[in-house]
Amino acid sequence: MMSITQRNGSLGAPALVTQEGSRVLRAGFIPLVDASVLIAAAEFGFARKEGLTLELVKDVSWANVRDRLAFRQFDIAHMLSPMPVASMLGLGSNPSPTITPFSLGKGGNAITLSTRLFGRMQEVASLSDQASALDNAKALAAVLAEMRDAGEMPPTFGMTYPFSSHNYEFRYWLAAGGIDPDRDVKMVVVPPPLTSDALAAGAIDGFCVGAPWNMVASERGVGRIVAAKQDIWPSAPEKVIGMRPEWAEAHPETVSRLIVALDAAARWCDDPANHDGLAEVLATDRFIGAPVDIIRHVLAGEFSLDAQGHRRVIDRYFTFHGDMANYPRPSQALWIYAQMIRWGQTGFSDKGQASAAAAYRPDLYRNAIGLPDSVGQDDFRVEGSLETDAFMDGFIFNPAAIEDYANAFPVRSHLAQRASSADTDT
């Protein structure tokens, strides 16, 4: 280990430097497989090659990660893709400006329901074991209608954070089946490592979370996986590297070296030949603390949907590098902004649109990797227009018509367009 000499905590201060001259970056992360690129950069020498030392700190909740980055306990952080967007819009408790110059990849989320609830869906809707994600959502809608008629309490569903891909993907899936997430069910925040236990205890009836926790629940026999991220929108950004904009401006060389290191680690993580070694590291208590076999399976996209032996294979369930997976495309940030509008977390404005787009910094990525500026001509592309990249309900997102898009859905928030999230943020 390199010994630490000094940390200057003042605004814009240089990052911590070891006696040997390597720049140390303190990075917060949540124990999920989608932190693989960050972990691999630290553990397999990619950061060291760029003169960096990544000091990884495992945390318990996204709110903690957000706050510790804001209060300068972290230099960078493993973050949910909507978190920088929310921060630049001033949403949530303790919002602090945050940008991302690097996406950690695509894929990794899934929706799991309790075996009891799924069994009821099978009975009410004659649901087959091979039903699609949309069929599953419609079956759940039929169960909810039966529950309302019988005067039963609606189910409670867990997601990881109000400004998360999990929240928006869970809502998107529910709404595609005709379910109003704000009226027909109850949505609560549950930290990722606690979701399987909460489902087993009956505290929640389902959840949307990243790997490996869906498969942990299914292999325990307490849950059934009913939809994956790829079923909802294959290109949806998942996790990103977040940093304070003034820190990035004060350390441009460090940011560039970090992006180069992460890019190399992402290429390495994308190679199936490296998945056994990656899984061994991820499975340790220092990082995820889950069975190594489960991690191997999720890296390969091999799912045990439940404990009855039903399986599914999703090609490239994780894409760590290919197909521009690391490029922080502003049109994706604007899709997130549109979902915030759709669900009443904010309203549309020209200023809000500009702030949301500014959260994603493809210019920093292009400069570090050496991509031509012409690549940026596609930064505000229409999303979901290709058959291989379609949204599950067939909608297409045009970032030039955000307000019309958000208002076009038959199921959307009936709350005030500008609603405080302070009561639900955690």
From TrEMBL:
Q: What is its main location?
A: membrane
The places in or outside the cell where this protein is found are: Endomembrane system
Q: Which InterPro entries does this entry report, sorted A to Z?
A: NrtA/CpmA_ABC-bd_dom
Q: Output the Pfam families linked to this UniProt entry.
A: NMT1_2
* Superkingdom in the source lineage: Bacteria
Q: Which SUPFAM superfamilies match?
A: Periplasmic binding protein-like II
Q: Which UniProt keywords apply?
A: Cell inner membrane, Cell membrane, Membrane, Transport
Q: Which PANTHER family match?
A: ALIPHATIC SULFONATES-BINDING PROTEIN-RELATED, BLL4572 PROTEIN
Q: Tell me what this protein is called.
A: CmpA/NrtA family ABC transporter substrate-binding protein
